[in-house]
């Protein structure tokens, strides 16, 4: 099942061009540029059937798509002054709790790690908000893939899967195949993780 906004009025015509997409996002999002970046990244990693997630390969690891999106967009959102303010708050909190190492280099590494984690958490919240706006705009669909059954709501052992419609993908990336018939084999293992051929 897909999560949809039951109160949203149906679009009078399908979104098929870049101006349509930009206009639709502007009508539904408080941060249209950020939301467009989220849509573009989802479309780039989507399989030929338009689905992206529940996991995305990041180097040697497979991470939930929401976490991957937050990490991918974090550099653009982590402005220098904001990062510096966050670092000052983290350092002050560690000092207050007596957890700041005496060694300067070690202290900086600890502060930097906690700053990155805070930025990641903030980013994941922003991603969820942007995706909800895209769902309401009718540009993507969202459901949560579980170990045994899929569901429209998030729950234990469920990870988000985003589906970009063919017209939207074609407008964003005309050279990307969108035919579902070209979908590569995708087999779910435990917790919705894809398995390699050797593991099937």
TrEMBL record:
Keywords: Plasmid. This is Uncharacterized protein. Residues 176-200 are annotated as: Disordered. It comes from Rhizorhabdus wittichii.
